[in-house]
Amino acid sequence: MNVFQFMLQNHNEVLALTLEHLWMVGSSTLLAVLVGIPLGILITRRPRLNKPVLGTANIIQTIPSLALFGFLLPVPWIGESAEHLAILALALYALLPLIRNTYAGIQGVDRSIVEAGRGMGMTDRQLLWQVELPLALGVIIAGVRVATVISVGLATIAAAIGAGGLGEYIFRGLAMVNNQLILAGAIPAAALALLADVSLGWLERRLSPR
Predict the structure, then answer these.
(1) Backbone angles phi, psi at 31, to 5 degrees
(2) Is the pLDDT of residue 77 over 90?
(3) Average pLDDT for 58-71
(4) From CA 143, how far away is CA 105, in angstroms rounded?
(5) Which of 129, 143, 181, 183 could be 97's S-S partner, Cβ–Cβ 3.0 to 4.6 Å?
(6) In the chain, what percentage of residues exceed pLDDT 70?
(7) Is residue 29 exposed (0-12), middle (13-18) or buried (19+ Cβ within 10 Å)?
């Protein structure tokens, strides 16, 4: 029996694990967007916070995923649920591309356009919402794209703490030395990453200023 026959015979379980995977990735990416984009905006307004914020996000990226899960285990409420723990860890890993791209996108807006807006009497808030963010949107979406693809891959590790997802097949296959099981988890995860990359890449191109 090849891997595709196995997936067809166990399609209900494959679908359930895929939905668990999507839930973790979607929830963590949304949480990262809600935190990362405002932080990216903040450091454009408060340059002295640039190095501490980006430095912290960089440090988080260097922590091995299993070690980060271990660090978060003692946190009240978070450590009590494998799902909560996995979502928070994935969100932390997704922060760097979101913060960096938001900052780079806003900083990359032509200063003459910003000065023209100031000359028209626009406030800083109006400049942000009506000029800078619309022009930086393509770069910000590129950050969301990178964060999503990272989360799809890292979510497979979440199975190690019992959070579910397609990593269940991968870890089960490793324990049984069964390549078929490993591929049953790896192939759908790779397909999800590819789908996220292509769809968000299309959105990025549509929203980039011409």
Answers:
(1) -60, -45
(2) no
(3) 87
(4) 10
(5) 143
(6) 99
(7) buried
Mean pLDDT, rounded, for 182-206: 92
Name, in order, each residue with C-beta under 8 angstroms of 205's C-beta and a sequence gap of 6 or more: 138
Burial 129-167 (b: 16+ CB within 10 A, else e): eebbbebbbbbbbbbbbbbbbbbbbbbbbbbbbebbbbb
* Angstrom distance (rounded) from CA 173 to CA 182: 5
Q: CA-CA distances (angstroms) from residue 39 to 44, 47, 68, 117?
A: 9, 11, 21, 23
Is 43 or 161 the better-scoring residue by pLDDT? 43
In this structure, what are the phi and psi dihedrals at residue 141, rounded to the nearest 5 degrees? -65, -35
C-beta neighbour count of 116 within 10 angstroms: 12
Distance CA 151, CA 154 (A): 5
What residue spans of 46-110 are helical by DSSP H? 50-62, 65-72, 82-107
In angstroms, the CA 55 to CA 58 distance is: 5
Per DSSP, the three-state class of 145 is helix
